[in-house]
Amino acid sequence: MAAHNYGFGHPSTSNGTTALPVDPFTPHLLGDDNIRVVGKTALPTTQGASIQQTEQSYSLMMHMSQALGVNCTFCHNTRAFLDWSQSAPQRAAAWNGLQMMREVNAVYLETLKSLYPANRLGPLGDSPKANCGTCHQGVSKPLYGQSLLKDFPELGGKAAR
Predict the structure, then answer these.
(1) What DSSP character marks residue 66?
(2) Alpha-carbon distance 141 to 144, whole Å?
(3) What does the alpha-carbon distance between residue 152 and residue 160 come to, in Å, rounded to a whole number?
(4) What pLDDT score does 90 carry?
(5) CA angle 148, 154, 159 (to 5 degrees)
(6) 49: Cα separation from own chain's centroid
(7) Residues 121 and 113 sit within 8 Å (Cβ to Cβ)
(8) Where are the domains positioned within the chain?
(9) Model confidence over 45-70: pLDDT tens digits?
(10) Residue 117: pLDDT above 90?
(11) What is the pLDDT of residue 1?
Protein backbone atom coordinates (compact mmCIF):
# COMPACT_ATOMS: atom_id res chain seq x y z
CA MET A 1 0.00 0.00 0.00
CA ALA A 2 2.82 2.41 0.79
CA ALA A 3 4.48 1.76 -2.57
CA HIS A 4 1.39 2.40 -4.69
CA ASN A 5 -1.48 4.75 -3.96
CA TYR A 6 -3.61 3.69 -6.97
CA GLY A 7 -3.97 7.24 -8.30
CA PHE A 8 -5.29 8.79 -5.10
CA GLY A 9 -3.93 11.77 -3.22
CA HIS A 10 -2.52 13.67 -6.20
CA PRO A 11 -4.72 16.72 -6.67
CA SER A 12 -4.88 17.89 -10.27
CA THR A 13 -7.29 19.74 -12.52
CA SER A 14 -8.57 16.37 -13.76
CA ASN A 15 -10.08 15.54 -10.38
CA GLY A 16 -11.08 19.03 -9.27
CA THR A 17 -7.95 19.40 -7.10
CA THR A 18 -9.25 16.70 -4.75
CA ALA A 19 -7.83 13.39 -3.58
CA LEU A 20 -10.40 11.57 -5.72
CA PRO A 21 -9.24 9.23 -8.51
CA VAL A 22 -7.10 11.00 -11.10
CA ASP A 23 -8.62 9.18 -14.08
CA PRO A 24 -12.42 9.35 -13.90
CA PHE A 25 -12.70 9.11 -17.68
CA THR A 26 -12.04 5.47 -18.44
CA PRO A 27 -15.06 3.88 -16.72
CA HIS A 28 -17.50 6.68 -17.51
CA LEU A 29 -16.36 8.23 -20.79
CA LEU A 30 -15.27 5.05 -22.53
CA GLY A 31 -17.66 2.42 -21.23
CA ASP A 32 -21.28 2.57 -20.18
CA ASP A 33 -20.85 2.48 -16.40
CA ASN A 34 -23.71 3.86 -14.33
CA ILE A 35 -22.91 7.24 -12.78
CA ARG A 36 -25.70 7.18 -10.19
CA VAL A 37 -24.49 7.05 -6.59
CA VAL A 38 -27.44 8.51 -4.67
CA GLY A 39 -29.63 5.76 -3.27
CA LYS A 40 -33.31 5.46 -4.13
CA THR A 41 -34.23 4.55 -0.55
CA ALA A 42 -33.79 6.35 2.78
CA LEU A 43 -31.59 3.60 4.21
CA PRO A 44 -28.55 2.15 2.40
CA THR A 45 -28.95 -1.18 0.63
CA THR A 46 -26.44 -3.65 -0.73
CA GLN A 47 -27.50 -2.81 -4.28
CA GLY A 48 -25.98 0.69 -4.24
CA ALA A 49 -22.70 1.85 -5.72
CA SER A 50 -19.41 0.73 -4.19
CA ILE A 51 -17.05 3.23 -2.58
CA GLN A 52 -14.79 3.03 -5.66
CA GLN A 53 -17.71 3.65 -8.06
CA THR A 54 -18.88 6.55 -5.92
CA GLU A 55 -15.39 8.10 -5.91
CA GLN A 56 -15.12 7.73 -9.69
CA SER A 57 -18.54 9.32 -10.17
CA TYR A 58 -17.77 12.27 -7.92
CA SER A 59 -14.39 12.71 -9.59
CA LEU A 60 -16.13 12.81 -12.97
CA MET A 61 -18.62 15.38 -11.65
CA MET A 62 -15.71 17.51 -10.32
CA HIS A 63 -14.06 17.26 -13.74
CA MET A 64 -17.29 18.33 -15.47
CA SER A 65 -17.67 21.30 -13.11
CA GLN A 66 -14.09 22.41 -13.80
CA ALA A 67 -14.35 21.81 -17.56
CA LEU A 68 -17.58 23.81 -17.88
CA GLY A 69 -16.72 26.47 -15.30
CA VAL A 70 -19.93 25.79 -13.35
CA ASN A 71 -20.99 24.22 -10.07
CA CYS A 72 -23.34 21.31 -9.28
CA THR A 73 -26.50 23.42 -9.36
CA PHE A 74 -25.93 24.26 -13.03
CA CYS A 75 -27.43 20.82 -13.79
CA HIS A 76 -28.73 19.42 -10.50
CA ASN A 77 -31.39 20.44 -8.02
CA THR A 78 -29.59 19.51 -4.81
CA ARG A 79 -32.91 18.93 -3.07
CA ALA A 80 -33.77 16.08 -5.42
CA PHE A 81 -30.80 14.64 -7.30
CA LEU A 82 -32.81 11.67 -8.59
CA ASP A 83 -35.77 13.64 -9.93
CA TRP A 84 -34.99 14.76 -13.47
CA SER A 85 -38.21 16.80 -13.62
CA GLN A 86 -36.79 19.11 -10.92
CA SER A 87 -33.39 19.47 -12.63
CA ALA A 88 -32.25 22.28 -14.88
CA PRO A 89 -32.46 21.65 -18.65
CA GLN A 90 -28.66 21.60 -18.69
CA ARG A 91 -28.76 18.19 -17.00
CA ALA A 92 -30.23 16.62 -20.14
CA ALA A 93 -27.62 18.41 -22.26
CA ALA A 94 -24.87 17.08 -19.97
CA TRP A 95 -26.27 13.55 -20.24
CA ASN A 96 -26.22 13.83 -24.03
CA GLY A 97 -22.67 15.20 -23.81
CA LEU A 98 -21.59 12.14 -21.82
CA GLN A 99 -23.17 9.86 -24.44
CA MET A 100 -21.34 11.78 -27.16
CA MET A 101 -17.99 11.44 -25.34
CA ARG A 102 -18.56 7.71 -24.87
CA GLU A 103 -19.14 7.31 -28.59
CA VAL A 104 -16.20 9.53 -29.59
CA ASN A 105 -13.86 7.61 -27.30
CA ALA A 106 -15.11 4.07 -27.94
CA VAL A 107 -16.04 4.22 -31.62
CA TYR A 108 -13.53 6.72 -32.97
CA LEU A 109 -10.44 7.28 -30.79
CA GLU A 110 -10.15 3.72 -29.47
CA THR A 111 -10.38 2.22 -32.97
CA LEU A 112 -7.52 4.46 -34.14
CA LYS A 113 -5.19 3.17 -31.40
CA SER A 114 -3.09 1.09 -33.81
CA LEU A 115 -2.45 4.17 -36.00
CA TYR A 116 -1.09 6.42 -33.24
CA PRO A 117 2.69 6.65 -32.79
CA ALA A 118 3.95 5.27 -29.46
CA ASN A 119 4.56 8.77 -28.04
CA ARG A 120 0.84 9.62 -28.48
CA LEU A 121 -0.34 6.63 -26.40
CA GLY A 122 -0.90 6.74 -22.65
CA PRO A 123 1.41 5.14 -20.09
CA LEU A 124 -0.56 1.88 -20.32
CA GLY A 125 -0.55 1.90 -24.14
CA ASP A 126 -4.10 3.24 -24.36
CA SER A 127 -5.37 5.67 -26.98
CA PRO A 128 -5.96 9.35 -26.16
CA LYS A 129 -9.37 10.14 -24.65
CA ALA A 130 -11.64 13.10 -25.27
CA ASN A 131 -13.34 14.57 -22.23
CA CYS A 132 -15.48 17.57 -21.34
CA GLY A 133 -12.49 19.91 -21.16
CA THR A 134 -11.44 19.01 -24.70
CA CYS A 135 -14.08 21.36 -26.15
CA HIS A 136 -15.45 23.34 -23.21
CA GLN A 137 -12.10 24.60 -21.85
CA GLY A 138 -13.63 26.07 -18.68
CA VAL A 139 -16.74 27.66 -20.21
CA SER A 140 -20.30 26.32 -20.30
CA LYS A 141 -20.64 26.63 -24.09
CA PRO A 142 -18.17 24.53 -26.10
CA LEU A 143 -15.54 26.35 -28.15
CA TYR A 144 -16.28 29.56 -26.19
CA GLY A 145 -19.77 29.70 -27.71
CA GLN A 146 -18.50 29.99 -31.30
CA SER A 147 -21.23 28.96 -33.74
CA LEU A 148 -20.15 26.39 -36.30
CA LEU A 149 -23.48 26.47 -38.13
CA LYS A 150 -22.35 28.84 -40.88
CA ASP A 151 -19.33 26.63 -41.64
CA PHE A 152 -21.08 23.29 -41.10
CA PRO A 153 -24.81 23.71 -41.91
CA GLU A 154 -25.32 19.93 -41.67
CA LEU A 155 -24.99 20.31 -37.88
CA GLY A 156 -28.25 22.30 -37.81
CA GLY A 157 -30.54 19.57 -39.09
CA LYS A 158 -33.18 19.97 -41.80
CA ALA A 159 -34.33 23.45 -40.71
CA ALA A 160 -30.87 25.00 -41.19
CA ARG A 161 -30.52 23.88 -44.81
Answers:
(1) H
(2) 6
(3) 10
(4) 92
(5) 100
(6) 18
(7) yes
(8) 13-160
(9) 666 677 777 777 888 888 888 889 99
(10) yes
(11) 47
